[in-house]
Write a structure and sequence with these properties.
alpha/beta; GMP Synthetase, Chain A, domain 3; 2 domains; eleven-stranded mixed β-sheet; binds 5'-O-[hydroxy(phenylacetyl)phosphoryl]adenosine
Length: about 425
């Protein structure tokens, strides 16, 4: 099994390695990046003050704006000649977040991704069809390099051209499908339209990530395609995909803690939370050369669990990411995440999987949800009765009022990448 030793390290081994690596990373960042040196000096901290893992909480946080403020080359810790690749993610502000890699960083990332495949149950005999976007987005190349490192055949179909995607799956007998969960849902619809029975395909494992998705959606994908649907987490700043992945237990995503030191904080007070409490995930990269990240605030909200998993791995687990602090909507004083709405909608059999939340006025006193009816129910259900039922379910679970608009199947634009669940039509003044 690929990197078996690293996957099965015990907690004490992991923590000893974390401390050794953190000391080295802090030294590297302090010596080579003026941005970090300044941050340390502001709080009177020196690299040698980090003597234990508890001391990590003394290090100032790094946030996305820090990277944007250092556009275009970011907070480089090596001369530009040693940088072999750039990726970038676009944000709402217009300035992309650029991330850079040395050859060693690309190597570490490839190993991490290969380890993810292996942990999820993929073997070198599999045939990987990679339908993540290739380009500045880290999904395509990250999954590609990992598959090559594991030693599988990898087919770089990338996003788009769904007909060709399906014929490739059929003809090449692909056994692993890599794409966003939204695109997997779309493929399921497209298979129906093309008249392809999923039993004609050889796919056995799906590696889905890059956006939140619910357990109900997982069940739907697994049942429709007859596969195991594995969740995988990552972000561009932390190499890309490959930070954490589910093992076949599907009970949380193992964070590769020999490469990422993880903390959860209260996003308001910034206090470190004990394991088991939900908070914002903060990562320190443990061997990044080009762009060290110390205590990077992700805005992703989750719970960390350090209990040994039934699979035998001791790498801590993030229990599925349900949303980001900046996705949260406040409706009539109630905090709500799009993923909570998804959980409820997917559980109503008459509805399809596609929905969107439309924001119309600055002050949200009710929720406006547009959701498609399932194709097999369209034209057969009483729409008024169904929208009442949906509104009542949302009210009962989330204690908030909602206006529901039921749409004909196929109305909401499908995506090949990450789904856009919130449509903001509010007028800017
Ligand atoms: O989405 C990297 C990636 C590619 C991960 C392919 C997995 C698969 P970014 O575009 O920088 O990088 O977006 C990172 O996406 O902070 C989360 O909010 C969200 N995200 C990523 N994976 C998951 C997941 C890639 N499995 C941001 N569950 C992160 C929930 C996820 N959210």
């Amino acid at each position: 099994m690929f990197q078996e030793k690293e996957q099965f390290m015990i907690k004490e081994e992991i923590q000893a390695l974390q401390l050794e690596r953190i000391k080295r990373q802090v030294e590297h960042a302090y010596r080579n990046v003026p941005f970090y040196r300044k941050k340390f000096e502001e709080v009177g901290l020196k690299p040698e003050d980090i003597r234990s893992l508890e001391d990590v909480s003394k290090i100032p946080f790094t946030v996305k704006d820090d990277l944007r403020d250092h556009y275009p080359y970011g907070i480089l810790a090596v001369p530009i000649e040693r940088v072999h690749r750039l990726h970038a993610s676009s944000g709402t502000t217009g300035i992309p977040t650029v991330v850079s890699y040395t050859q060693k960083d690309l190597d570490t990332w490839s190993n991490l991704m290969a380890r993810c495949y292996s942990c999820a149950g993929v073997t070198p005999d599999d045939i990987v069809q990679n339908a993540y976007g290739y380009g500045l987005f880290t999904g395509g190349l990250g999954f590609h390099m990992g598959a090559e490192r594991l030693g599988t055949l990898v087919i770089p179909t990338a996003t788009g051209n769904t007909k060709r995607q399906i014929s490739m799956m059929k003809d090449m007998k692909s056994t692993v499908l890599c794409c966003t969960p939204s695109y997997a849902l779309y493929l399921i619809e497209a298979l129906k339209e093309e008249g392809v029975d999923p039993s004609e395909l050889s796919i056995r494992i799906g590696m889905f990530g890059a956006e939140p998705w619910s357990d109900e959606t997982r069940k739907h994908i697994e049942k429709s395609l007859g596969i195991k649907a594995q969740d995988l987490y990552g972000m561009s700043e932390l190499y890309g995909p490959g930070v954490a992945v589910e093992c076949p237990q599907q009970n949380g995503l193992h964070i590769w803690a020999d490469e990422f030191y993880v903390e959860t904080i209260d996003p308001e007070t910034k206090e470190v939370l004990p394991p088991g409490e939900k908070g914002e995930i903060v990562f320190t990269m443990l061997s990044r050369e080009a762009m060290p990240l110390l205590r990077y605030r992700t805005k992703d909200l989750a719970v960390i669990n350090w209990e040994r998993c039934a699979c035998g791995r001791s790498h801590p687990r993030i229990m599925r990411i349900k949303g980001r602090s900046d996705d949260m909507l406040i409706v009539g004083g109630v905090n709500v995440f799009p993923s909570q709405i998804e959980d409820i909608l997917v559980g109503i059999p008459e509805l399809g999987e596609q929905f969107q939340i439309v924001l119309e006025t600055a002050k949200l006193d009710h929720l406006f949800v547009q959701v498609e009816v399932a194709p097999e129910h369209w034209g057969k259900v009483d729409l008024k009765e169904l929208s009442h039922k949906v509104g009542a379910k949302l009210q009962a679970s989330l204690t908030l009022r909602a206006r529901i608009e039921l749409l004909e199947p196929g109305t909401i634009p499908r995506t090949q990448g990450k789904a856009k669940r919130v449509i903001d039509n509010r007028k800017r003044i």
